[in-house]
Amino acid sequence: MGLFFKNKKKDKIVAIFDIGSSSIGGAKVFIPHDTENEVPVILDSVRLEMKSIASSNINDLEKEACFTLKKTAEALFSKKIGKLDEVICTMTTPWISSETKRVSVSKQSKFIVSKKFLGELVDKELSKITQDLKEKFETEREVIEKLIAEVSIDDEPTDNPINEECQFLDLYLSYSHTNKNFVTKSKEALESVFHSTPVSFSSFSILTYLMIRDSYVNQRESYLILDIAGETTDLSVVNRGIFGEKYSFPSGKKTLLKHLALDLKIEERDALELFRLYYQNNLSLNHREKLKKYFESLERFWSEEFKHYLDTILKYHQLPKFIFLTIDVDMRNWFFEVFKKTELANNLTLDKRFQIIILDQTEMIDKCSLEVGNHDPFIMIEAIALSKK
Question: Which of 11, 159, 212, 241 has the largest count of CB atoms under 10 Å?
């Protein structure tokens, strides 16, 4: 649930599955009881690409995702991973949407804040949220993740409001929701492989927020979370420690490579190789000049979208000190090349305190241990966050 509803912990062996926009990862993970002295350990992992679907029909996309999820589960199971305590399936864009809602309570006289009071308040709000989602969407939605991001009593944020007395209470409830039918089909795919193991669902955006909050910054810091690894770019805003707006635009790694392959009339795998060579400066000058216009077109396409959303964010929020970035290794040179060309990025980096922190294996190795060869940064983020819940 969040800050004040932590589960009683024990050492666990779990399987974590990461449903991305274009691939699905799976891993066997040790989650320790003593997170003060131990870190989670990724023991084995696999990742499979989803087949590209020409149709934009969400049912076709979900069908392919569930098919690949089952194949990924079978690939992990075939490694003889042994008995599991739980299977945890995390989802990201486009499968889920994440939002934060402020819930306010005021009474004429002071009252005592208890766990029961907060629990009933959250349950009541989730009932309203479920009803609102039912009216807003054509398909039935299910809330798969909920988190109390912050509680303020009498206008003062508190790390622990339990047994405190107040007259006014504000609670920030972050939640993620998805198509209920997709949850059902995903669960069936996992249960067909892990027959008697309980299956639960979680949100990559909220888990990333949790991992950063507990591992990198003080709880009331402002920052951005940027994910460019799949079909989309996701930009999440954390304002003074509260997970707020989330923006997505259809221009991630896979989309850029599709555009490049189409422009050059080549296969996507060849476009990826050309992409790597171009941004590693491993092409001849003549070849590079011939391709320059194509790559500059991709850069403009992404940077204009990125700047649009940054402009929107900065109308309502202060400049952040950090951007936390999830990106594949072969995209890093491209990102920094594009980022440094944007006027807004230059304004951001004028503040010497501003940092871009790449959430990769090297950055997180002190927070999540790895068996040889199992270096999936998305699973690492999820394992770290889940160990803190």
Answer: 212
